[in-house]
Amino acid sequence: MCEELMCEEDELRRRLFRATAAMRHKPAQRARAAGPPGAHIGYQLAWAHTQRVYCCSACGAWLARPQDEFSTSEQALDVSLDDAEHTICIGACANLVESPRHDTSSSSAWVYRVHAVRCACCSAFLGVRVKEVQKIGGRRREGDESRSAPDRLNEAYHESRGVRLSPPSSLWLRSVAPPPPPLPPPPPPLPGDASLPPAGASLPDHSPAVPCVGRLARGRSGSGSRRAEPPPPTTTTIESGSRLSVEQTYLGTRYLRVLDAHAQRPLNPIVPLVCRGCGSTLSHTDQFLCTKRRWGFGNSVPERACYMNSLVPGSFEVRTEYEEHLAQGLMDMADVYCKCGKQVGYKFCRDKTLTGRNQNQVGRYGLVVSCFKPQLEQE
Known about the structure:
The chain is mostly beta strands. Among the domains are: about 50-140 and about 150-175 and about 240-260, Peptide methionine sulfoxide reductase (Metal Binding Protein, Guanine Nucleotide Exchange Factor, Chain A, Beta Complex), CATH 2.170.150; about 270-375, Peptide methionine sulfoxide reductase (Metal Binding Protein, Guanine Nucleotide Exchange Factor, Chain A). Helices cover about 10% and strands about 30% of the residues. It has four helices and 21 strands. The strands form five sheets. Strands 4, 5, 6, 7, 8 and 10 form a six-stranded antiparallel beta sheet that branches. The chain has a six-stranded antiparallel beta sheet with strand order 15-16-20-19-18-17. The longest helix is centred in the N-terminal third of the chain and has 21 residues, at about 1-20. The radius of gyration is 30 Å and the shape is elongated. The two termini are about 15 Å apart.
């Protein structure tokens, strides 16, 4: 059931983000002004365009407006995260802090300068900010010849840090690439060239006669005239070593909520996940990040668990921090208890891997499936 609920939430989220992005292109209409009666006409016209806002799904901090989102043609690249396949591209964001930079390769030809971004209020990982891209032109790094294939694969896996970047968009490259150098002028004709008319002779006019009435009319070539050739296609040439500024922030959609800014409520309905012991709300179905985890309490047999973006503040207690070797690496973990005293899950406290591979999991939680249930309407 958890996997079905997560798939439903993903589909609802995808539709909502698509509809919200489409609202950016709808102009405000004076005849359809909304808002509180008696308010200033400017506020009424802006009502629809200020109604929605992107916020952190864990704490509710406002991050950006749909007007700040870049369209697909304006994005420099495509980004996907371990926890969120889909991302939105934002220019200006509030309540975000950047981590120290690291370089991530998208292919053998490009290297990005990337900073992870976290919520300034709850410190939850939300995505990455791409600062610039550099073309390296297939140059090899030092020591590549002596490294084995497994070592290279392991390095590439760890350097990604849960972030996958595509090569730069060709459309974006054409918009930011420096213009090509001008073509050299044609060489002057040589004296005595037989193809040239004698000095003082007029050139014959082979253009068809076209009447011109009123405004200037464009002539059409005759059936025997040569058809005009299309202009040559423009090509984008980026030299090796060139650095291009990007300055775009990519946020995972699973980490976000679309909020009704006027009512202070999520636009999509949310289904509570309640403790089987006392019935208090632990989280919501839109907080699922993965439903295929395993976890056991103490020495018990591991059972099914769900990886969660956040839990409801005040509904749980974190106890007994300890070090744990997980499949993804070494981390500091802690046990999570419901306020009724029932142990329900775990928390990722710190990433202790040398590469920072699990930075996206720090501060997030896991719930054992046998300890909670969705509170459906018919219940």
